[in-house]
Amino acid sequence: MATTLAKAADDTAAAEHAARIEHVSKSFAGPAGQQLVLDDITLDVAPGEFVTLLGASGCGKSTLLNLVAGLDKPTVGSITTDGRPALMFQEHALFPWLTAGKNIELALKLRGIPKNERRDRAESLLELVRLKGAHGKRVHELSGGMRQRVALARALAQESRLLLMDEPFAALDAITRDVLHDELTRIWAETGVSVLFVTHNVREAVRLAQRVILLSSRPGRIAREWTVDIPQPRRIEDAPVAELSVEITEVLRGEIRRHGQH
């Protein structure tokens, strides 16, 4: 399966972008009228690139991700993607009445994969996320980290060229989160999939990404971006990761103070 995904990425190597967000604004109706949540966001994600969206709570990160996923439409501007993105949430959203493998097979079924191929493909995806032998396990038998691995395998089953991840590790303990950082980095490198990853954790953003995009608050605008030139594999405690995290945190704090948040 990793080979198939890598081939899909190779086939689109000539594509200009995995996602292109052009002058996007988003407003929602509120008690005081229309509330501007995102303001004039322009951002490209290159094929095979790993980008993190970082910002304080309420800055519009998840709203932007939902727009890229096609779950909502921008009020102004346009979004194009290289095919239909796959989306992974903070909650695993697995069906508890299905086994780990059957959750993945359902995604394959929705893609039109023949029934006689689904089991093998699901097994391959479970092996990719290092859950070999877990096909028959029920959701309640899995730890939080294992559930997120299954959710990742299900997202990869869609064979999308763009993976959207909305704080998928936020609810996990620090050790499990660190292990899954390693796993996600490995899978990203093996498959060549593009990733747009939302987080409010500065070190997580630096640990994972090639590029960190900081959104301001009220409304969300691109305040600043950083290219992360630290070689992978990285550890969250590595000195270069810590140093860049301190720099980004200071800018983030400035944005929070400027917008009067606490």
From TrEMBL:
<dbReference type="InterPro" id="IPR003439">
    <property type="entry name" value="ABC_transporter-like_ATP-bd"/>
</dbReference>
<feature type="domain" description="ABC transporter">
    <location>
        <begin position="19"/>
        <end position="244"/>
    </location>
</feature>
<dbReference type="InterPro" id="IPR050166">
    <property type="entry name" value="ABC_transporter_ATP-bind"/>
</dbReference>
<keyword id="KW-0813">Transport</keyword>
<dbReference type="GO" id="GO:0005524">
    <property type="term" value="F:ATP binding"/>
</dbReference>
<dbReference type="InterPro" id="IPR017871">
    <property type="entry name" value="ABC_transporter-like_CS"/>
</dbReference>
<keyword id="KW-0067">ATP-binding</keyword>
<dbReference type="Pfam" id="PF00005">
    <property type="entry name" value="ABC_tran"/>
</dbReference>
<dbReference type="InterPro" id="IPR003593">
    <property type="entry name" value="AAA+_ATPase"/>
</dbReference>
<protein>
    <submittedName>
        <fullName>Sulfate ABC transporter ATP-binding protein</fullName>
    </submittedName>
</protein>
<dbReference type="GO" id="GO:0016887">
    <property type="term" value="F:ATP hydrolysis activity"/>
</dbReference>
<dbReference type="InterPro" id="IPR027417">
    <property type="entry name" value="P-loop_NTPase"/>
</dbReference>
<keyword id="KW-0547">Nucleotide-binding</keyword>
